[in-house]
Design brief:
By secondary structure, the protein is mainly alpha-helical. It has 19 helices and no strands. 75% of the residues lie in helices and 0% in strands. The chain is globular.
Length: 503
């Protein structure tokens, strides 16, 4: 998508630092939707009569809605202007949040969560494009650091408030909590964001947009429903695979041959931006996965209350504030060094969770979350700086849209893959464990399978089966966290493909 965007100068515009406050609070809304919902996923599973893989759709379909609409940010900005687009996005987000609180079954909840993601999609890339335009190159690291700290402050506060509100009331209250926050963000945007960014003659490449949307949607459906329907043994999954392949093929061929494609081809000619896209996709894969998996472990297997789960998840937000503060201090350090440190810290947090047992202490979980948060905070600023290091200003709106598209897509895909690992390896672990649990196993001892865990009564067999399933699930979550850690360390060599060229 190309356009000759006119740069309008508004001499009465507010201070860039006030604009930074406004866009930071608006962006905080989207991050709140992820963390505030995760803490109540087990409660939502029971209330909406969903299976563990189905309840994960509440997270992944929200991200899918964001991923589909995010690429439209540049075109929407050119058509509506920055201020109008921001006001419309925040208003729609508030309404979708209210609708989520009214859902009585899984289907409408998923629809409303897609709406939340779709309306929230332009907020993040639009905010970043506004910041990149408002602050010169030498101040961008500082602005991105403050921007990130403000955002994760909301992410850290959301699980605590969400856990407490859900425990005192119910899960509907956490969505209602987002409505007044959205109204305050709307007031800030109306007061501090000026109109601009509109351009005449902008045309949307519908072929590119539709083919990309179909490909992304089919890929997400494959990951969400493949395990449940037997993958390629199901006709439905085969249709989704065909749709994904056809959609990507049309998108690539059309982008390479069209005069005015959906995405400007000049973006990928910038080596640093191309490497930045790979890194931000990996960042998205690693950023929210732990806080999606941990609630199922802490409440489903450990029986922790929502308020305690919220506090433990908030440690990640605290760590991210520390990480962003350190990233601001490391603004003059080579981005490759900062990115290596960030990925290494996140990988260490994954290892800390990969070997936990059912008797794990809350302190251990809090420490791992804090470490993961510090790594994510340290990583975000250099990844952003590296990606936009040498990108021309005229490509910033489209560049920011693709940047956040891949971040959201990586997040959505990796969360779905993690739950596939959990579901599949739980079945394998259960089948393995059940062969060893019997009254004649000398390693267990006869008294181990008597009493509450008895092989002589129906109630005893039911209790024994429940405990075996609990142990199988714990091993499955260990596998998911181990995959997470391996992914973190495996990304580090990609960092050194980036080159520090003239800006």
């Amino acid at each position: 998508m190309t356009a000759s965007r006119e740069q309008t100068v508004d001499r009465t515009a507010p201070s860039p630092y006030l604009v930074l406050i406004a866009v930071s609070f608006c962006t905080m809304l989207y991050s709140m939707t992820v963390t505030v919902v995760n803490v109540t996923l087990p409660q939502l599973q029971g209330a909406l009569s969903a299976t563990p893989d189905q309840v994960s759709w509440i997270v992944t379909l929200n991200v899918l809605g964001t991923a589909v609409v995010t690429p439209l940010t540049g075109w929407l900005t050119a058509k509506l202007g920055r201020r109008t687009l921001m006001l419309g996005a925040v208003s729609g987000f508030a309404f979708a949040s209210f609708l989520c609180a009214t859902a009585t079954s899984l289907a409408p909840m998923l629809l409303y969560r897609v709406g939340q993601g779709a309306f929230g999609a332009p907020i993040v890339p639009l905010s970043q494009a506004i910041l990149l335009a408002a602050f010169p190159g030498e101040k961008r690291a500082m602005a991105q650091g403050v921007f990130g700290m403000a955002v994760v402050a909301g992410m850290g506060l959301a699980p605590v408030l969400g856990g407490y509100v859900a425990e005192q009331y119910d899960w509907r209250a956490i969505f209602l909590l987002l409505v007044p926050c959205s109204l305050f963000a709307l007031l800030l945007a109306a007061a501090l964001i000026r109109q601009g960014g509109r351009a005449d003659g902008v045309r949307l490449d519908w072929t590119g947009f539709v083919s990309l949307s179909v490909a992304i949607g089919c890929m997400q459906l494959i990951l969400d429903r493949g395990e449940r329907f037997g993958w390629l043994e199901s006709t439905e999954i085969v249709v989704y695979c065909a749709g994904a392949v056809l959609g990507f093929w049309i998108f690539v061929v059309h982008t390479l041959s069209c005069d005015r494609p959906f995405f400007e081809r000049a973006l990928l000619r910038d080596r640093n931006y191309a490497v930045g896209l790979v890194l931000v996709c990996c960042y998205g894969m690693l950023n929210f996965t732990p806080i999606t998996l941990l609630p199922a472990v802490l409440q489903g297997l450990k029986g922790y209350p929502d308020s305690l789960i919220g506090l433990l998840l908030a440690m990640r937000g605290t760590g991210m504030v520390v990480g962003f503060f350190l990233a601001g201090r490391m603004g003059k350090v080579d981005p490759r060094i900062s990115m290596t440190i960030g990925f290494a810290l996140i990988g260490m947090s994954g290892l800390a969770l990969a070997f936990i047992e059912l008797n794990v202490s809350p302190q251990h979980v809090a420490w791992a979350g804090l470490l993961q948060g510090v790594g994510s905070g340290v990583l975000w600023v250099p990844v952003t700086t590296a990606a936009f290091w040498s990108l021309p200003p005229r490509l910033l709106p489209d560049g920011a849209a693709i940047f956040h598209l891949l971040r959201n897509l990586g997040q959505s895909v990796y969360i779905a893959l993690s739950f596939i690992v959990v579901v599949r390896t739980t079945q394998v672990n259960y089948a393995d464990l059940v062969t060893y649990v019997n009254p004649f196993n000398e390693l267990l001892g006869y008294e181990t399978v008597t009493g509450l865990w008895s092989t002589d009564t129906l109630a005893g067999l039911r209790a024994l089966r429940g405990e075996i399933n609990r142990q199988a699930q714990m091993i499955a979550f260990n596998n998911a966290f181990l995959l997470y850690a391996v992914t973190c360390f495996g990304v580090i060599p990609i960092v050194f493909l980036w080159r520090k060229t003239a800006r």
